[in-house]
Amino acid sequence: MSRSMPKPTNPTDRAEPPHASRPAPQTRPADLAGLIDELTRSGARLDATLSELGDAEVRAPSRLPGWNRGQVLAHVACSAEAYTWLLAVARNGVGPGPRLGREALARAVAEAAVRPADALAAELRSALARLVADARAMPAEAWDTRVTALAGWAHPAWYTLYRCWRELETHHVDLDAGYRTAHWPAAYVTWALDGTLAALAARDFPVARVEAVDLGRTWHVARSAGPAVAAPGHVLLGWLSGRATDTTVVVTGAGPGGPSAGEPTAEGAAAGVAMPVGRLPVPPVWPLPPAPGWDDAGDPVA
User: 230 lies in a domain?
Assistant: First the structure.
């Protein structure tokens, strides 16, 4: 349910290192308890930021066009409630009540956004606490039950935890209250890049290769020739998610704005070109549904 910003950007081509790989499907984490702990820590970081915001600061604009901070916080709280509802469906076969549609969610966000800062913080804290408590009490066999996002695509219940993690980390940055993409945990960045680049590869996004220089990870994306881009993982994810439109990456090989308008040369590939992400190809609206998705048995399908 992460609300998207206008997108930035793109990269080039060079010899494939042995650790490069095609993006892989999302798989169930081996340590669900550890993932729930990550959610708890993410929520605690957001709560620490909220403790510094008064009523005036909550009414100030966020980084999301047309939204103030109160609207962002109300959206995150409503999203946490929606994820709790999905876990109940996986556990019991039915939701605890009717599911809110898009219009009803928009009304709920608008109504909550005008509340005082301390009330907004308390509501968000309570919504996250309920989600974490339900996740910790979830029967092991229920995690693979398939549930459906409001947008209509299906996923196993365990993926709900990842969706909430993404919601917290993304919208914490959107508050424009001191939390930046550089503060994102490496584990979150790695997971989000894996999923984002797999989805982009399914769309043949016009980038040949993406390298997170600090994570020791490289992903192949486009099957056709294209540029390659290298940067710290949080910069790459910030570019692909539209949360870092003023950063610079290193581009190598052929492609728009690359070192050569034709075939890449060894000299150009080795040197690379520092380039603002605003000059790179523009990614589609983020986040994208996972690719491949899951069939009725909970297995990944194309």
Answer: no
User: One-letter amino acid identity for 11?
Assistant: P
Contacts 24+ apart (CB under 8 A), 146-150: 146/294, 146/296, 146/298, 147/86, 147/89, 147/90, 149/289, 150/1, 150/82, 150/99, 150/101, 150/102, 150/105
Q: How many domains does the chain have?
A: 1
Q: What is the pLDDT of residues 256-270, one digit of tens each?
A: 444 433 333 334 344
- Token output for 74: 């109300």
39 in a domain, yes or no?
yes
Using CA atoms, how far residue 245 sits from 60, 109, 173, 203, 226, in Å, is: 21, 27, 13, 22, 21
Q: How many CB atoms lie within 10 A of CB 45?
A: 16
Question: Half-sphere exposure (CA, 13 Å, Cβ side) for 180?
Answer: 8
286 found inside a domain: no
SS3 263: coil
Could you give the CA distance from residue 298 to residue 159 in angstroms, rounded to a whole number? 11
- pLDDT of 302 reads 43
Residues 16, 173: Cα–Cα separation, whole Å? 33
Average pLDDT over every residue of 180-195: 97
For 129, list phi and psi in degrees, rounded to 5. -65, -40
Q: Residue 85 sits in a domain of what CATH number? A: 1.20.120.450
Domain with 120 in it: 32-184
Query: What Cα–Cα distance (Å) separates residue 193 from each residue in 88, 133, 187, 201, 217?
Result: 28, 28, 10, 12, 10
Alpha carbon distance 151, 232 (integer Å) = 31
Whether residue 257 is contained in a domain is answered as no
Residue 301: in which H helix or E strand, if any?
strand 300-301
pLDDT for 2 equals 55
Record the pTM.
0.86
Distance CA 75, CA 82 (A): 10
